[in-house]
Structure formats: structure tokens, C-alpha cells
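Teaching assistant here, posting this on the class forum so everyone can see the example we discussed in section. The complex has two components, and the goal was to see what a joint structure prediction looks like when all of them are supplied at once.
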Amino acid sequence: MTIYLLCFILFSVGLYCLLRKRNIIKIIIGLAIIEYAVNLFIILIGYRMHGRAPIFARDQLISNMVDPLPQAMVLTTIVIGLALTAILVSLAIRIYEKYGTFDITKIRRLKG
Amino acid sequence: MRLIPLFIIIPLASAFLIALLGRRIKSLGDWLVNLTALSLLVFSLLSLKLVAVSKIILFQAQGVLPTLGNCFILDGLSLFMLVTVSLVSLMILIYSVSYMQRYSDKWIFHSLFMLMLAGINGVVLSGDLFTLYVFLELASFSAYALVAFGAQPEDLEASFKYAIMGGLASIFILLGIALLYSYTSTLNMADMSLALADKPAGILLKFVAVLFLVGFGLKSAIVPFHAWLPDAHSSAPSPVSAALSGLLIKALGVYALARVLFNVMGVYPQAYFIFLVLGIISMATGAVLAIAQDDIKRMFAYSSISQAGYILFAFGIGTPLAVLGGLLHLFNHAVFKSLLFLNAGAIEYSTGTRSLKRLGGLNSKLPITGSTALIGAMGISGIPPFGGFWSKLLIILAAAQAGYFIFAAVAALVSIITLVYYLKFQNFAFFGQLEPIWSKVKEVPFFMRFSLIILAVICLISGLLLLPAFAPFLQDAANILVMR
């Protein structure tokens, strides 16, 4: 249970960072933290106490394995998260070129 | 069934080829994207007959357990979306042959657009939740990049806003999928709905439903989550705005939400009511905010929020008639909103401005843009005999039949407000005296005119989809959503 709570705290830290910070780079970091929290949560779903890696072999007894599907999912989501971070960072670089600042309160050319 | 993966492989391959060779061979992109969209349209029309016979077609990679491997499903609803997406995207791509000449590096646009198309098709066809998530991300990423395509400061700002909101939405969706997986230990939609039917509806399922509502709600910009849409849709190049408004928010938002909530989780009465209320709120808010806009594309973007509200409202009523009306409205809206955005693009192409205050009397200079815009505006505000009239009529009738008289009255009122702001658009842009500065304006090139006219014709006759000869197309799709 504690570990789920810690995972939730990680999520909240990310959400706080995303909502409260003004610096674009910090917002991106916040989004990345949220994503890691969710990835961690998915891994925790498939975890079993003292389970072994789900590798299939002839002489191995199929006893207590962790669930492999969440791990496969997390591999994919990590890659997707990398792509999102790459897009956001490249946008941030271009925004800095145009506006000369990372502060979102000063990047307001569009009226809400 | 071998046809299904083609819907994803063809645009992906074309995106890859353009990315590889597009920089060197200039004309490759134009040919390849139009050919791709045309072939997708042909394939989707070909599969109409197949689906009419066998209702559900399943495709699965071989040698994988059915509950684990990713699978694709083609049923009435997916096919309806596929036909809409390929038809509208073909028109958008024909239009962009001329329009995108203004931008350098056209091949990047083509490549990204094909990726987005592959993503949308994947979302529409996917039969398990994780595949849906992956394709959802593919479509969203290309949309973020396409919004920033012009690389003006406003574009970058809008794209950043959109990317942050969209990223958060995807994370909520992923969390919902993870929770559902832990509850049912399968990802396949059909298996999951069977597994959920056996279990009691606990607090976990409600939490998951809320996560999906927030996630897909952010993607489809229903009202509490709409802040990114006017910026993103008005900053993007016009063909991209047309694709975002016409296709992306429907496939990624409304379609995915309906699919997941109705077909996988099964609906609770509360879910219907939430759809109803959110639909009404988006409808009214979008329409009221649209009146005051000066930028044409911003006005259309707010109008998109309002019209997406109609679709959501129709799904919320939940009777077969309402769902039918909602789907017809989805099709209509995809057609006339892309027509209107392309018109806005044509105005910008000829005059260089989108501000309503500076335009005026363009009807004499841009006759085809003017008349097609008039058709689009009449279609969207529901003047008979245009397609928009029939879909709105069905929705309002169904609301009255189900006993929601006040909501039906609000929907009718919003339709009138829609007419008001489209009249404002017509009045400021096309009617009246020609401003002297626009006396040298020329009509847009052939390709742009061509797709404007085709879309206007579809807009005019789309009410015919209700005729018995074409009815199975809509009816099969509606049956999927009301089957339970």
C-alpha cells in the first residue's frame, strides 16, 4: 500500500509542477514526472511478491511470475513519452527564439 | 480480413516515403498524398458491402493469444468514421496542393498529415485499448507539430498550449486504461466489456469513467476543457485547421469517448446525464463566445466547440433516433466545418487577412468562395434543405421525444445563435460594398475551387443519407452505440 501512496505522491508533485510553475522548461519536467508516475503505477499493477522475470524456458517451472503485459506497455509508453518531451522541448527552443523568454506569463500574444 | 491493416499501412508508408524522398523530389508529396487519400476512400467504400453482410470484421496478428495481442475491428461505426475521414481528408489534400505553396518545406506538411491520418484511422479501427492509446498519441503528436507548422510566434504558443493539454489528457487516458486492465486483466475491448458485465459497478469504475471523460474531453474540447482549441485551430494553416476541426476532435474525442464509455464500460444513467449536460454547456458556451470574434478562424473554432456539443448531446439522449441524428451531425459537421475553414483559408490566400473588420464586399471578387461559404454557413445553421437541418431536426425531435423539453428548446435556440454569427461572417466578409483595397483581389486557383465546390455539394445533399437506399450506412453505425 505504501508504495502506491508514494506513486500517488509522485503524481501529485508532477501535477503541482505542471500547474504552478511559470517556466516552460519546468512545466515540461512536470509533465515528464506525471508520466513516470503513471508508468510506475502500471509496473506496480503487474508486480508480484517474489515473482520472477517472465522468460519462457523448457526446464523452468511456471510458478510465480510477474505479469509481462504491463512491462511491454510501459516500454511503449516510455518511447511515446520521449517523443512528447522531444516535441515540447523543440517547441520551447523555438518559443525562446521568438519571445526571448521562458516565462509563460510573458508569452501571451494570443488572447484567451 | 486482409483489407483492414491497409487503412493504417498505406498512410504510414506514404508518410515514410515522403519523409525519405520529399526534400529531393518536389512534386512527389502532392501526388502521393492525394493518391493515398483516394485509395483510402476507395477501400472504405469497398468495405461498405463487406460490413453490410458480416457486421463485424476482426483482424488479428497471427500466433497471439486473442486476449493479449493487439487487434483491429471493423464494424459499422468504424466504417462510418473511416468513410467520413477519408472523404474529408481527400478534399483537404486536393485543396492544399495550391494552398500550401505559400509555405516552404511542403513535404514536412505532407508527411505529418499522413501520420495524422494513420493515427486517426488506427484509433477508429483499434479493437483493444492499448492500440487505441498508441494511435491516439500518433495522431496527437502530428497534430501538435502541424499546429506549429507556420513557426510564427502565435503558432508556437498555441502548439505548446495544445501539446501540454494533450499530453496531460493522454496521461489520464493511460491511467484509466491501466486501472481497467488491473480490474479485468484484459485489454481487448470485447473481452473487457464481458468481464465488466460480470462484476458489480464499484467506485473504481466510476473513477475510470471520470478519467476517460477528462482525457477524451480534453481531446475533443468539450467546454470545461476547451481552452486550447480556439488558439490551436486558428493558428494552424487552414487545411490543418480543417482537418483538426473536422476530423481530429471527432475521431480522438467524441468517437473514442463513445466507444470506450458505451461499448466497453457499459453506460450508467449518470453517464448519459453527464453527456447531456456537458453537451448543452458546450453548445451554448461555444455559440455565445463565437459571436464576439473578429478573427474568422477563431469564430469557426468556437463554432466547432458548439457543434461538438450537439453530437455529445445527441449521444447523451441515447435513444436510437438521437444517436442516428448525432452521427449524421458528426458527418455533416466534418463536411461543412472543413468547408468553412477552407473558405477562411481561401479568403486569407487572396487578401492576406482574417480580420472581419477589414474585409467587405468580397462576393464580386471571390464568387465561388462566397457562394460555397454561404452554403456552408446555411448548412451549419440548419436551414432546410441542407444536411445540417436534418441532423439538427433529428436531435431536437429525439430530445423532445425523450422528454427533455427545456434542453430541446436550448438546442433550437443555439441553432438560431449559430445563424446569427454566420450571418455576421457573411455580412462582414462577402456582402456590402467592396473595400477599395481589395479591388485587385483574384479568385483562388483551380484545385482550391474544386474541393470547395465538391464539399459544398456534399453539404447540400447530405440529408439524402437518411433515404432508405443509404440508410444502412448510418443505421449500422447507430446500432453499435445503442445495442446494449
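For the discussion questions: The first strand of chain B starts at residue 57 and ends at 60. Chain B has a mean pLDDT of 89. Think about how each of these relates to the inputs above.
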